[in-house]
Design brief:
200 residues; alpha/beta; Glutaredoxin; 7-stranded mixed β-sheet; SCO1/SenC; SCO family protein; copper; Thioredoxin_domain
Length: 200
């Protein structure tokens, strides 16, 4: 075989190996140590309103010092929001007695004009939300500011990105799970944070 032909085969094999390594690297799970997977974002501590009409500052009062999973919805959504709602409905069962104690769930409406507290209350009841799963709305500008701070604002609510945030309010640590993380993945992330806090 000509020298050039052998070189071409070796080059092709090398490129194939590099491609396989790159693809495999995409499947590496997040670090087991929760703190190693944190992100740096600046979320404003603005006043929002829950499904019962009770207001509080998002960071200092609503999240407080609890370990919190946060996602996003709007009640007229028929595409990705029901999936995120179903994930949180499942995870609240896995959290068990810790829900509302050391761990809480928060769902923020990205359509605060439509999703007034009464509407979110009805939505939460349909989902069977237990104490410890809070739905938030509020003044449109304040909600948008919070979404921008979390890098989750979309001018078109029909194309808002799906994600779940894990927040350690006590230590001010934030992690983001993009897409539709399974309840198992969310629970594992929460457990890692609990372990880091000495509460596992």
């Amino acid at each position: 075989m000509p020298r050039f032909g052998k070189f071409s085969i070796r080059l092709t094999m090398l490129l194939a190996m590099l491609l396989m390594v790159a693809l495999c690297s995409l499947q590496i799970p997040p670090p087991a140590h929760a703190g190693a997977n944190t992100i740096q974002i600046d979320v404003p501590d603005l006043e929002l309103i829950n499904q019962d009409g009770v207001s509080g500052r998002f960071i200092s009062e609503i999240i407080g010092d609890k370990l919190t999973a946060v996602t996003f919805t709007y009640t007229t959504c028929t595409t990705i929001c029901p999936v995120l709602d179903a994930i949180f409905k499942d995870i609240q069962g896995k959290i068990g007695e810790q829900l509302g104690q050391t761990i809480q769930l928060i769902t923020i409406s990205i359509d605060p004009t439509t999703d007034i507290p009464e509407r979110l209350k009805e939505h939460s009841e349909k989902l069977g939300a237990k104490p410890g799963w809070t739905f938030l709305t509020g003044d449109k500008d304040k909600v948008i500011s919070v979404l921008r701070g979390m890098e989750m604002f979309s001018p078109d609510i029909f194309n808002h990105p799906p994600a779940v945030f894990i927040v350690d309010g006590r230590r001010g640590l934030w992690s983001r799970l993009n897409g539709f993380p399974s309840p198992k993945v969310i629970k594992r992330a929460l457990d890692e944070y609990l372990k880091d806090r000495g509460e596992s």
